[in-house]
Amino acid sequence: MTATPGLGSPQLASPDLLRSVFRHHAAGVAVITARNGTGPVGFTATSLSSVSAEPPLLSFGIGTGASSWPVISEAEHIGVHILGEHQRELAATFARSGADRFGAPTGWRSGPEGVPVLDDVLAWLVCRVVARVPAGEHRIVLAEVVVGDPSGAGRPLLYHQGRFNGLRD
Question: Domain named Flavin reductase like: which ranges (predicted)?
């Protein structure tokens, strides 16, 4: 491999290279929720993407080793919640392994299709899962929007350099 002047020291592809590069990529923070007969599950996601407006589709990634995966792998509907900068602790709770994610102080209710809907978020959607695409040790979930509410107030929460941050002007 030949170095290109002004571009530093190129590295061969590796998990560490990918993680290092994406630490520079600021991402919006969402919480994905679902429910089965044993109760609600959820996790913090920074991989949320809009896929299509017609029909309204979105995607997110989830590791097959994640505690929420067994429920997400079979759920017909999922909830998508866009977090505000006032929700750093909520994002951390849903990112922490072994946390009681739906216990106090998390506020939530059963929403459309029985999906857990979190309180005080900037926006939420309930979506019907249309595909789960294998991608390494993850799955990319494609989901079609069924219903939602974009009327929350505040500024978005971002994830950058391994930390939750507010948006600066």
Answer: 22-166
Reported as a pLDDT band with limits 50, 70 and 90, residue 79 is: very high
Region of residue 51 (left: phi > 0; alpha: psi -120 to 50; beta: else): alpha
- CB neighbour list of residue 72: distance below 8 Å, 6 or more residues apart: 32, 34, 41, 62, 66, 78, 141
Mean pLDDT score across all residues of the chain? 94
In the predicted structure, residue 1 carries a pLDDT above the cut 80: no
- pLDDT exceeds cutoff 70 at 2: no
Helix (H) or strand (E) holding 79: strand 77-82
Cα 110 → chain centroid:
19
State both tokens at 44.
Answer: 């913090």
Residue 50 belongs to what domain range? Answer: 27-163
What is the domain count for the chain?
1
Strand partners, 127: 78, 145
- Using only C-alpha atoms, the chain has a radius of gyration, in whole angstroms, of 17
Half-sphere exposure of 21 (CA within 13 A, CB side): 9
The CATH number covering residue 138 comes to 2.30.110.10
